[in-house]
């Protein structure tokens, strides 16, 4: 049997003669008595009082409000989320109103990446960053976009970025490289007001103990065999390239190395030097390389006006030679520096001509070669009939290390 309600509705005539409908009862020990103009209004109040009485154990309360049903539900949800927080809801609302600017912050990741890479392209055009740097940036950001899709930049968290840079179990150095690229991107996003804080700052950067050993080099005999081959390969088209990289230490990368940007006019046989301008140098610093007698012989036998430093189809042709002789990225440059130090015993001069620091020369190139092997290396010269022989050279005055 349904329990009778403690609230009753009765018709009542005021002393003025007005007929009203009265709701009467008790709630939480307090008497309730309210008059309404119609029975429908009185019945609605009775139901509300009953609901309030029944809901007392669950924390429900009845209140007059201008909020809609949806707004009331949202308010209840927010208060529930802030239950364990130290500040009231008003604090977080004030913070959001002060710091959030929807017109500036709502930038999707694809749009942000497009804007940033365009900025980096302009830096490359101005000579601020290299082609390889822009390539690395675009490659990593393409992976970032694939991973996070069309999320807004300000929605990406430090925890998500931490997992992203650690993907695939890479080396610690590779993790740091990924983090570095993302750091510059999110720093740019912060400067553009797309985010209010840089999330990458909370992503771990690893401290790595550098233990680089001696540089990988070629023997004088291997260099002789290489030059024999390139004289006969494709009519000698690659001889200037290999001669300059091997006997002058020009950085040899055929994608973005110094050799690609070196002008024939900067190879000056009349004065015996190669001028490396800042826009050619990897470290953006001007330097000169002394043309050794054997390199002069190669450049005279294969003049640059007939044999360009970078001939057509260079990458494919160079790859064929590299495969045959197992040439790693900088092995020719490493060989030149180690042979130079062995012959002339001057780390300072080697550093100046190679564009390195003396500490790098001492750490990686000192005592890799004997003086005898260095003499053999710098005596490799071409013969008119296309053979390569080793000729003695006059020793240069030694300079103390």
Write the layout of secondary structure elements.
Elements: E1 8-13, E2 19-27, E3 30-36, H1 39-54, H2 69-81, H3 89-99, H4 102-105, H5 109-125, H6 131-148, H7 158-165, H8 172-191, H9 220-232, H10 239-248, H11 258-261, E4 267-268, E5 273-276, E6 287-290, H12 293-301, H13 314-325, H14 331-344, H15 347-354, H16 358-364, H17 371-377, E7 380-382, E8 388-390
Antiparallel strand pairs: 1-2, 2-3, 4-5, 5-6, 7-8
How would you describe what is shown here?
The protein has 17 helices and 8 strands. It is rod-shaped and about 135 Å long. Helix 9 packs antiparallel against helix 10 (239-248) and helix 15 (347-354) crosses helix 16. It is mainly alpha-helical and 401 residues long.
């Amino acid at each position: 049997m349904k329990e009778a309600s403690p609230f009753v509705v009765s018709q009542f005539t005021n002393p003025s003669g007005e007929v009203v409908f009265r709701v009467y009862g008790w709630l939480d020990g307090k008497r309730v008595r309210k008059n309404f103009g119609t029975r429908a209004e009185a019945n609605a109040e009775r139901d509300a009082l009953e609901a309030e009485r029944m809901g007392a154990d669950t924390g429900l309360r009845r209140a007059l409000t201008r909020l809609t049903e949806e707004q009331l539900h949202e308010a209840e949800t927010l208060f529930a989320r802030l239950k364990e927080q130290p500040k009231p809801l008003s604090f977080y609302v004030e913070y959001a109103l002060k710091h959030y600017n929807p017109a500036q912050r709502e930038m999707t990741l694809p749009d942000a990446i497009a804007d940033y890479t365009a900025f980096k392209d302009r830096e490359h055009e101005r000579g601020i960053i290299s082609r390889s740097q822009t390539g690395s940036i675009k490659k990593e950001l393409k992976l970032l976009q694939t991973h996070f899709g069309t999320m807004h930049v300000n929605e990406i968290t430090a925890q998500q970025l931490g997992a992203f840079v650690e993907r695939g179990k890479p080396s610690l150095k590779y993790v740091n490289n990924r983090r570095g690229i993302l750091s510059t991107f999110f720093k740019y996003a912060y400067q553009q007001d797309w985010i209010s804080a840089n999330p990458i700052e909370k992503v771990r950067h690893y401290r790595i103990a550098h233990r680089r050993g001696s540089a990988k080099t070629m023997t004088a005999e291997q260099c002789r065999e290489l030059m024999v081959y390139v004289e006969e390969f494709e009519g000698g088209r690659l001889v200037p390239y290999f001669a300059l990289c091997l006997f002058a230490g020009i950085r040899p990368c055929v994608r973005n190395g110094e050799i690609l940007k070196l002008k024939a006019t900067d190879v000056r046989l009349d004065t015996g030097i190669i001028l490396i301008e800042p826009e050619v140098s990897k470290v953006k610093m001007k330097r000169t390389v002394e043309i050794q007698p054997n390199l002069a012989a190669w450049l005279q036998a294969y003049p640059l006006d007939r044999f360009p430093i970078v001939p057509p189809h260079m990458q494919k042709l160079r790859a064929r030679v590299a495969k045959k002789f197992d040439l790693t990225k900088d092995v020719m440059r490493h060989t030149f520096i180690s042979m130079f130090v062995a012959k002339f015993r001057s780390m300072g001069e080697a550093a100046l001509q190679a564009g390195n620091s003396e500490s790098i020369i001492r750490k990686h190139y000192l005592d890799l070669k004997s003086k005898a092997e260095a003499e053999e290396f710098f005596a490799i010269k071409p013969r008119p009939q296309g053979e390569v022989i080793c000729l003695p050279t006059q020793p240069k005055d030694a300079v103390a290390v």
